[in-house]
Write a structure and sequence with these properties.
By secondary structure, the protein is of the alpha/beta class. The protein contains 9 helices and 7 strands; from the N terminus they run αααβαβαββαβααβαβ.
């Protein structure tokens, strides 16, 4: 993926998130057209990625949003592959076993509680087809330093619920298989994209030696 497209797809802290989510490629590239659902797509980046790989996507967010990603999708000539809906991830109106693939990035933290996050994963499991895949990436609680910095320096730090790696494993326990990788330690502390990109270079070797639960991003592939 070239640098410009990577920016459109991942949007912020690009190097850290794209690195951790690199294991998704085999699930969507060079495979037959899939029926996909993307949650939390206010900017439409993951929907763009899916559509560019030939898949049909329902691009959703909780609030009315289609005016935001539409210009991006039309500029990339994938408008015919994408439709838009406002959807609550914890209680959708989709039928059981509807989708081949469901994706989201940094979404369930905004639900604010373990109870609602559990409901979201349960709902995803319900609407996935047997053998279907959930690809997700989420901020996790990481270390006490990360937790303090979020409360102190972000507007949403108090209301966002950052799950632990143990909780993520609980949420995906109903799936047949679940594989994950974690990454990032310093990257999240950058105040600009340039700083985050630099810090990701430091994180790259650290990812090989730091405990998994110290890192702030988890990327998973769960199969129903």
């Amino acid at each position: 993926m070239d640098k410009e497209l990577k920016q459109k797809v991942f949007q912020w802290d690009v190097e850290s998130w794209s690195s951790v989510m690199s294991n998704w490629k085999t699930s969507i590239e060079k495979v037959n057209s899939l029926n996909c659902l993307a949650f939390g797509e206010r900017e439409g980046g993951l929907s763009l990625w899916l559509a560019l790989n030939g898949h049909n996507v329902i691009c959703t967010d909780y609030n009315k949003f289609d005016i935001t990603p539409l210009p991006l999708h039309e500029k990339e000539n994938v408008g015919s592959k994408i439709s838009y809906q406002n959807v609550d991830i914890t209680a959708t109106s989709f039928y059981d076993n509807s989708f081949d693939l469901i994706v989201f990035k940094s979404v369930v933290g905004a639900l604010g509680s373990k109870e609602l996050q559990t409901k979201a994963f349960s709902e995803i499991h319900r609407i996935l087809k047997p053998g279907g895949k959930l690809l997700f990436a989420e901020n996790i609680c990481a270390t006490k330093v990360h937790q303090y910095a979020r409360r102190k320096f972000t507007n949403w730090g108090e209301r966002w619920y950052y799950p632990s790696l143990t909780e993520i494993k609980e949420y995906t326990s109903a799936f047949k298989t679940f594989e994950f990788q974690t990454g990032g330690f310093f990257g999240t502390f950058g105040r600009s994209e340039k700083q985050r990109s630099f810090l990701q270079k430091i994180d790259r070797p650290l990812n090989k030696i730091t405990p998994k639960h110290w890192r702030y991003i988890v990327s998973g592939i769960a199969i129903k």
